[in-house]
Amino acid sequence: MDRVQKTEEVILLAADEGRRYGMGDLTAIFKVDEAESGCRYSVSEWLLDPGFEGVGPHSHQANEELFHVLDGEPEILIGDSWTVVAKGTFVRILAQTMHDFHNRRSRPVRLRHAASGQQTGPDIHGGCARISRMPCKTDME
Question: What is the pTM of this model?
Answer without folding.
Answer: 0.78
